[in-house]
Amino acid sequence: MKKDPLEMTLLFDFYGDTPTEKQRDFFDLYHNNDYSLAEIAENAGITRQGVRDIVGRAEQILQNMEDKLGLVARAGRGQDSIRKIRESAQYIEQLGAGHSGMQVIVSHARQIQELADTVLEDDL
């Protein structure tokens, strides 16, 4: 069964240099170019199972790297924090335009600072 294409693409973007050249090539054909295992096997002159083993090993290597380093997860958390920062900043802008709600402005300013701290800590 084919793994989640988005997840596999993200893992490959972050850790694509880790698998061997052959593993990278087969992984790329299978996940990014949507070749079937049979098509790859025919072009490579090996069995479908051989291709499955090579692609599976590449997937395992990429997942192991993510399990150890967590760069994809960290990037996702950073993106979530940045979205929240943007929403808070937009809200502050709207409140400032009407010159009301000073306590709410202070609360959102604190949230921006906390979220920014989270992004900075994750980037260390």
How would you describe this structure to a colleague?
The chain is mainly α and 124 residues long. The protein folds into two domains: 5-69, Arc Repressor Mutant, subunit A, CATH 1.10.10; 76-122. The chain has helices at residues 5-15, 21-32, 37-44, 48-69, 71-98, 102-122. Helix 1 crosses helix 4 (48-69), helix 2 crosses helix 4 and helix 5 (71-98) packs antiparallel against helix 6 (102-122). The longest helix is centred in the last third of the chain and has 28 residues, at 71-98. The chain is elongated.
Write the topology of this structure.
Elements: H1 5-15, H2 21-32, H3 37-44, H4 48-69, H5 71-98, H6 102-122
Helix pairs in contact: 1-4, 2-4, 3-4, 5-6
Helix-strand category: mainly alpha
Shape: elongated
* Total number of distinct structural domains: 2
Q: Say what the CATH topology of the largest domain is.
A: Arc Repressor Mutant, subunit A
Q: Tell me the radius of gyration.
A: 22 Å
- What's the quaternary structure here? single chain
Concise overview:
The chain has 124 residues and is mainly α. It has helices at 5-15, 21-32, 37-44, 48-69, 71-98, 102-122. The chain is elongated and about 70 Å long.
Which descriptors apply to this entry?
Arc Repressor Mutant, subunit A, 124 residues, mainly alpha, single chain, 0% strand, 2 domains
